[in-house]
Amino acid sequence: MSQEGKLTLDKRLALVSFTKDPRPFITVETELCKECEKKPCLYICPAGVYTWQDQLNYNTEGCLETGACLVVCHKIGAKAIHWKYPAGGKGVSFRQG
Amino acid sequence: MSGEGFEVAVVGAGPAGSAAAITLARQGVQVLLVERGSFPGSKNVFGGRIYTYALKRLLGDAWKDAPVERFIRKEGITFMSNDSAFTLEYEVKDPEQSFSAVRAKFDKWLAEQAEKAGAQVITDSLVDDLIVENGQVKGIIAGEDKIPTDAVIACDGTTTGLARKAGLVKMLEPQQISIGMKDVIEISPGTIEERFGVDQGEGAAHVFAGSCTDGLRGGGFLYTNKDSIALGLVVGGDDVSIQAKPSHSLLDRLRAHPKVQRLIKGGKNREYNAHMIPEAGPRMLTRPFTGGMLVAGDAAGHLLNNGYTFRGVDMAMIAGMAAATTILDAKKTKDYSAGNLQSYETRLRKDPALKDMYTFSKVPSYLRNRRLYGVYPEIVCSAAEAVYRVDGTGKKKIYKEMRAQTKGKVSTLTLVRDLLAGARTF
Ligand SMILES: Cc1cc2nc3c(=O)[nH]c(=O)nc-3n(C[C@H](O)[C@H](O)[C@H](O)COP(=O)(O)OP(=O)(O)OC[C@H]3O[C@@H](n4cnc5c(N)ncnc54)[C@H](O)[C@@H]3O)c2cc1C
Ligand code: SF4
Question: Which residues make Cβ contacts (< 8 Å) with residue B155, sequence separation at least 6?
């Protein structure tokens, strides 16, 4: 396939502008994740915030603030995610939404 | 933020919030419109296209100043298999009925109209909570600021935080949401017009069903802006979680399809963005009001996505206007109790535009049928291949070919049942 097809998530997120919120707006009780069978957060997040390597890791720097992880974690997962929006004016800023 | 003298606080400067604020401010109500983003639209993402009627209803002739990207001349739907595509296209009579837009421009412009009408717009401000006295909402709390008001209109979008705080909804279910994401790809205006066969200033809206979602509930979309193409995909929250397919990998599938490749060829990526979509309809909330507060737009499930038309922005604007009108009525007696705000629900149900949401209320459950995303698009493509293929090996009549294609994939009974259910739903 020609080059138009190839666009990794990292490249995609590099095109998005963020203003970092120093406070953690998402926290995960990762101990609970060990009991989580389906780990839906790994699949729903369009920004790949959640990854699994021996344990649940999360990096909110690329968070696009959809809030979908909260829904699936609480209904399919082990209710480990505490989620709120970043402070006013912080977080993602879309120019092409 | 000054806490003095606001009669109504509107939370969220999306289409619902700005429409509500415009409607109130025009009647001289002291309105505060609060937005968490650094400008209205900076947090908002859609396909997308806006149906003009709603904007006309809100602004009259002044709708013509809206930041339109392109008026939609061509409506298309493509059923795709991995390596083929069957497309239907319709050229609408009146392209002014809808236009493509970019939310960072459109939402910003609409909030400016609210400001012009007399509303005070505050950005960079996240509303954390509600002031509640004796079960009645009496204002908003944003950080250190407590702002007392007579009433609040919650237009805070699909995460519906304020309705949750007011006890109007519990946590949503995964099947009540979809996740949508898109690439915005820069392409020159001339190339867009050539590739899509449209005149200057006109554009195309296109949806894709089939292999792009790998059998999951959802589909792709494409809209042409002035000098870019918005290419995205929506997938069901339950499906993507349980089938364990990273949501963004499906956008890659769409992008990699040969038909799509030809449409975006030579383009440069401008941005990637994503947003959640409420799919449960207005029944998402137990009711869209409580004492002192009304909920409008995505936050109340005011959206209709039936697969070929996606209506969130127009519904949000109309619902925002309905909420504001309800407040204007309540203002006459200064009674903002739940009992008195109840007329909001009737207003929503009776509105000729919003009525569609209730008429098509069975659509979300119909669209949960996975055959629509897997086997049916596959059958359409293989039947078309059989019809158009000439290789000298002899051909069947079209009807026989169609029958042969469905064989083993889906029983006649199931097919008929799905068709009938579709006829009843749409
Ligand atoms: C991928 C995708 C494609 C779509 N395509 C289309 C389409 O083509 N056509 C169409 O009509 N619709 C489409 N929609 C739906 C449409 O985007 C929504 O229905 C519409 O934006 C709803 O408007 P709203 O005002 O209710 O909410 P939003 O537009 O979400 O606005 C909510 C606002 O509230 C702000 N906010 C939230 N919480 C707070 C808080 N606590 N304090 C302060 N501010 C807050 C947000 O920053 C935001 O500005 C699409 C949606 C998606 C995700
Ligand atoms: S879904 Fe929730 S509980 Fe499960 S792995 Fe993810 S964060 Fe942990």
Answer: B10, B11, B12, B14, B16, B17, B20, B295, B296, B297, B299, B316, B320, B323
Identify the CATH assignment for B175-278 out of 3.30.9.90, 3.30.365.10, 3.30.360.10, 3.30.2270.10: 3.30.9.90
CATH class for the domain made up of A16-86: alpha beta
- Buried/exposed B329-346: b ≥16 CB within 10 Å, e otherwise: ebbeeeebeeebbeebbe
Report the chain B residue with the minimal C-alpha distance to residue A5: B256
Ligand 2 pocket test: which of A37, A51, A81 has the largest number of ligand atoms within 8 Å of its C-beta? A81
Q: What is the ipTM of this complex?
A: 0.95
Q: How far is A29 from chain B (nearest CA, A)?
A: 18
Out of B124, B241, B271, closest to residue A43 by CB = B241
Q: What is the pTM of this model?
A: 0.94
What residues does each domain of chain A span?
16-86
Q: What is the pLDDT of residues B230-273, one digit of tens each?
A: 999 999 999 999 999 999 999 999 999 999 999 999 999 999 99
Examine the pLDDT at B3 and tell me if it is beyond 80: no
Asked if A23 reaches chain B (Cβ–Cβ under 8 Å), the answer is no
A45 lines ligand 2 (CB under 6 A): no
